[in-house]
């Protein structure tokens, strides 16, 4: 199968990811931080090594401020619910994933929307215009999961700093493929996926929390530290990281992050954009096909075919051409509303470092054939 659903999760991983996960399962998949024996210590060392590599990738000064989660959704929930107990108003962008929108709505706080332009770009001015007197959080996706447009988080971070408002970034689509510097970008909290462009396994993700932010816990329990206390530890990462960690998954993530660091996000993005530009250029030449998003983007291409529902397009790609894609709403209702695509959704093709140009050519040919039927 030609796999072009990498925005959901990358299918092809570096060989070292699979190799080290198998070694972990076979030799040292003990409970890290929950014992003094050598296997627990070895597992703990690998977990900390992954924290260190992630800290290097995002320019985090203290690896302890990175908390492991099961995915970006859990990371966003930790961040939003952890801070909203002290907040009455939030600014979100009009391109957010349901992980942000639903969490905000269920919290009961008021919110305003920084509206994107026609290509899905959320400007710093749009964010600043949405700020109210009692705004206590700004949350913006770094890149859209439906059209790929990259938002100017450094500029938005400056706005957040100017107004002294914590800034949460959803980096599900960008961590590993776009350079992120939490200091330069003035990011207070960064939620990221391990299983997408960091090339780790599913069930991995994380949250960076600035030392200036103190989140309330939404999960309490065993941390392997201060076990004699009835109270949750107040130091990181234990404050937010209760229960047995996904050791084997984190070991795989470690190798994925090493792969990204060795190749650099800049080079990975350049390779992906070589593929993406060809895909966009050729799709635009097909009569009846409409491509969405800005030029500055990640390797995510949302498009529609006149007269066809997006799910129908993707079903045909799968059944008739053996191409994996994603149709529908992509768990991003407000983003589709902003783009005017809420009625029929979009078909989405998304590349990775391991995508081949020959696969892009076959996808273009398939969409061309589907559009003519």
Determine the CATH topology of the largest domain: Aspartate Aminotransferase, domain 2
Structural class by SSE content: alpha/beta
Using the CA coordinates, give the radius of gyration. Answer: 21 Å
Strand content: 15-25%
Number of helices: 11
CATH architecture descriptor text of the largest domain: 3-Layer(aba) Sandwich
Rounded mean pLDDT score:
96
The portion of residues assigned to helices is 25-40%
Number of strands: 13
Spell out the key features of this protein.
Aspartate Aminotransferase, domain 2; alpha/beta; seven-stranded mixed beta sheet; 2 domains; 373 residues
Q: How would you describe the overall organization of this protein?
A:
With 373 residues, the protein is of the alpha/beta class. It contains eleven helices and 13 strands. The chain has helices at 15-28, 38-58, 72-84, 98-107, 124-130, 153-162, 247-263, 265-284, 310-321, 333-339, 357-372, and strands at residues 2-3, 66-69, 89-93, 110-114, 135-141, 167-170, 189-193, 205-209, 289-292, 300-305, 323-324, 326-328, 346-350. The strands form three sheets. The chain has a seven-stranded mixed β-sheet with strand order 2-8-7-6-5-3-4, with helices on both faces. It has a four-stranded antiparallel β-sheet with strand order 9-10-13-12, with helices on one face. Strands 1-11 form a two-stranded parallel ribbon. Helix 2 (38-58) runs parallel beside helix 7 and helix 5 runs parallel beside helix 6 (153-162). It is globular and about 70 Å long.
């Amino acid at each position: 199968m030609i796999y072009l659903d990498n925005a959901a999760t990358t299918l092809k991983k570096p060989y070292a990811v699979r190799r080290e996960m198998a070694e972990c399962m076979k030799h040292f998949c003990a409970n890290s931080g929950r014992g003094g024996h050598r296997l627990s210590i070895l597992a703990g060392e690998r977990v900390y090594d992954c924290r260190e590599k992630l800290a290097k990738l995002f320019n985090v000064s203290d690896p302890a401020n990175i908390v492991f989660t099961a995915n970006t959704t859990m990371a966003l929930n930790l961040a939003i619910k952890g801070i909203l107990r002290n907040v009455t108003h939030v600014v979100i962008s009009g391109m957010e994933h349901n992980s942000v929108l639903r969490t905000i709505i269920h919290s009961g706080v008021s919110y305003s929307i920084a509206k994107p332009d026609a290509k899905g770009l959320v400007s710093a001015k749009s964010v600043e215009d949405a700020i109210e007197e009692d705004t206590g959080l700004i949350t913006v996706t770094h890149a859209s999961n439906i059209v790929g447009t990259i938002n100017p988080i450094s500029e938005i971070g400056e706005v957040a700093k100017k107004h002294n408002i914590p800034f949460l970034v959803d980096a599900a689509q960008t961590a590993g493929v776009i350079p992120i510097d939490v200091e330069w970008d003035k990011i207070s909290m960064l939620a990221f996926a391990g299983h997408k462009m960091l090339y780790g396994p599913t069930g991995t993700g994380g949250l960076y929390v600035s030392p200036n932010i103190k989140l309330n816990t939404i999960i309490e329990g065993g941390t392997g530290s201060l076990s004699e206390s009835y109270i949750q530890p107040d130091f990181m990462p234990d404050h937010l990281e209760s229960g047995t960690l996904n050791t084997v998954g984190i070991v795989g993530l470690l190798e994925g992050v090493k792969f990204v660091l060795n190749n650099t996000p800049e080079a990975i993005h350049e390779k992906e954009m070589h593929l993406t530009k060809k895909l966009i250029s050729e799709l635009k030449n097909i009569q009846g096909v409409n491509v969405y998003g800005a030029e500055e983007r990640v390797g995510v291409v949302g498009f529609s075919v006149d007269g066809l529902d997006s799910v129908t397009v993707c079903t045909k790609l799968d059944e008739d051409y053996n191409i994996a894609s994603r149709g529908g709403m992509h768990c991003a209702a407000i983003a589709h509303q902003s783009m005017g695509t809420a009625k029929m959704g979009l078909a989405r093709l998304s590349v990775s470092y391991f995508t081949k140009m020959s696969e892009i050519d076959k996808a273009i040919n398939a969409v061309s054939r589907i559009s003519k039927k």
